[in-house]
Predict the structure.
Amino acid sequence: MSKLELQMRNYRLTTAEILYYLPDHPVLLQSFIWQEYDLAPRFPELKRFLDFWTREIEGRLHSVTVAHKELIKPEQFTFYDHELTLH
């Protein structure tokens, strides 16, 4: 599915900053930025990614900060009755 189709289905650009402990140095934190189109407020894509992270990646999660933004809004679409062509 294209990004436009996802946005028309209420998917929004979602960014998550994931802080995790380094496996070799468990007192140090590392930041990872994840970005994908997802459905707020349940965020199924992010949840799927975090489930994968806890199952497959050694770095234990510290915290996740989430932000999302509508890219297409109804007021951005304007329909016109006439078209004028200039040469």
About this structure: The two ends are 38 Å apart (CA to CA). The chain is about 20% helix and 35% strand. Residues 3-76 form one domain.
